[in-house]
Amino acid sequence: MSLTQDLPRRLSASRGTRAGLLVLAVGIVCLLLEQSLPWLSIWPAEWTVPTTQWIGDGLGAVLDALKPAMRAVSAVLEYPMAGANWLLNTIPPVLLIGLVAALGWYLGGALMAALGFFGLLFVLGSGYWSESMNTLALVFVSVPLALVLGLSIGILAYEVPRVKAVVQGVLDVMQTVPTFAYLTPLLVLFGFGPVVGLIASAIYAAPPMARNVLLGLERVEDEVKEAAVMSGGTRLQQLFLVELPAAMTQLLVGINQCLMAALSMVIIAAVIGGFNDIGWEVLLTMRKAQFGQAFLAGLVIVVFAIVIDRLSRALATERRRYDWRIGAGIFAACALIYLVTLSSMPPVAELAWFDGAAASVDQSVGEFTRQNGAGLDSLKNSAMFYMLLPLRIGLDQAVLPFTWGFQWTPAMSAWFFLAAAVIAGAAALSGRTTLATVLGCLAIILETGVANLPWPFLLAGVAGLGWVAGGWRLAFFGVGLLSLILLAGLWDRAMLSLYLSGASVITCALVGGALGLWAALSKTAWLVLQPICDMLQTIPLFVFLIPVLMFFQIGEFSAFLAICAYAIVPMIRYTRHGLVTTPPELMEAAQASGATTWQSLRDVRFPYAVPTILLGLNQTILYAFSMLVIAALIGTTGLGQSIYLALGSADVGLGIAAGSAMAILALVADRLVQGFAKAQREALGL
């Protein structure tokens, strides 16, 4: 009797439950009417708006009009490029190594000096010194352009509050549009060559600088601003003589991020730059399956990234500066070594200290794959057949005699949905009605597959999540943007991208969350994980492709592993940070009440950490979409492949349309996760 009386209360429809029931109802209707109304699953071609053609025609006319002026700009930019190339290739390597080591000593002491010295010594011995200097020249020319652009945008957003929201929206779009999408129109404007990489690098690296400029100026204390006003200075004097210097720490952080973004982008620009830089060497050796040389060239990029990151980070965050005279002594010692060895030093192109190691890597990888090929294939096939394929095309298509050993039948679908209904019903009876609706929706997704989901079901799902996370405005925002993909005829490709990025994000959330929990509970674990996370966040995206290609060759599984390796770090860091920053008074209250370690973790630390963990999930999603386009180089399908094909054929319409669709997916996911994080912070009173 009490169960009957409690049933209405247990089934009371919260906002999440109502949204879940609506989505579930839409999904059930779509499945029941799938045969009679096929347009519920496949968007009719006659309903498609020729967006790609319109964009191509419209931008084509604009780009053609701008092309003469941009080609002139390209010709002008070739001079500083050529000058930087000449300078860096003319300076004797030993002197440049000594200069970097001396700078490292001044900024960070002996460890930083050793990092700069041995890092560049490795670059010299790799045989890629000239190619590395060409890459460095591209960075040196593009970064000042990015700094000026980012500084201007940040100051504009700070000085004109009415355009701040617009600027932030543009920055969001710029950071979510895939990197290859930048290159397609730039290729048309500036032509084939290194200048395209320079411009693309400057555009890609400007948003981090702009954000840090805006953040730094907003954080300047009111007392400092009032003192500047009281001194009688003009607005420009207040800004450039007081506020910007007061925000210098944040500006230096922006310079660090700008440098790393520029380095990452010039490597990607090698795809169409085609000149003798280290990115082109990586691409060329990968295409030839010379994995030892590709790995060596990739390590050169990693060394550059680590040295640049550590030096610029020390400049931004460290206040202590070391005795410059010792730095001068380091440089003098390197100059002396150069003078002594001048007559016996071979040309840098002939230095190949690690060619033997590269050949050994090729031999070892070949031997390992020959001996363990069956195991590697089994691992890849198991992941594809039992995880990725069912998520992509659903159990009803993925379960075959060839893969699972039996054929999926309509009767099995009926039993599967019946079992899901029983489990969801049990959850509803226990009062977890939202969980029950989520289980029902997951059953539809698993049986149908992400790539085959009815478009009304997915739109209803985004609307429901948006309404729960942020109200009707967020719901309309998500549905409106996704509808643009639907109307443009890119829905099928978008679902393929959503499937692979979704599988990667789920894996990163589970594995990264577990590692973050381990790091929060064990200081020793964090001592092991922290340097690994630092290294993974420093490596440019391109380099993640090399190790997976070594063992698993081209294919979707290799792309999945590369995306996971790149996107897992934020989940580890933010999970650990959220769990270790629980206020001490909350932990003391939990201990005073007699809670065990597990109870404190479950009932106190985890609820408090949820907003931070969601922020990590948000970053993981954005990282996954960024890497998804790079993974198109090794055989993925979907929007990433379309962007890459558009780049190869200079198809501006397809490149912009596919890049915009990818940005829409990332932007919608970003806003939904931010909405849930904000709701959780408000619930905690933060």
* Amount of beta strand: under 5%
In the predicted model, the low-confidence regions spanning at least 5 consecutive residues are 1-13
Order of helices and strands: HHHHHHHHHHHHHHHHHHHHHHHHHHHHHH
What is the C-level CATH assignment of the domain at 490-686? Mainly Alpha
Helical stretch tally: 30
SSE class: mainly alpha
How many β-strands, per DSSP?
0
- In round numbers, the mean pLDDT is 83
Give me the CATH superfamily of the domain at 490-686. MetI-like
Share in helix: over 70%
**CATH topology name of the domain at 490-686:** MetI-like fold
How large is the radius of gyration?
28 Å
Distance between the termini: 42 Å
**Overall form:** globular
The major sheet is characterized as: none
Can you give a write-up of this model?
This protein is mainly α and 686 residues long. Among the domains are: 15-47 and 392-487, no CATH class; 142-287, MetI-like fold, CATH 1.10.3720; 490-686, MetI-like fold (Orthogonal Bundle), CATH 1.10.3720.10. It is 82% helix and 0% strand. The chain contains 30 helices and no strands. α3 (51-90) packs across α6, α17 (355-393) packs across α20 (433-448) and α26 (556-580) runs antiparallel to α28 (597-630). The longest helix has 40 residues, at 51-90. Residues 1-13 have low confidence and may be disordered.
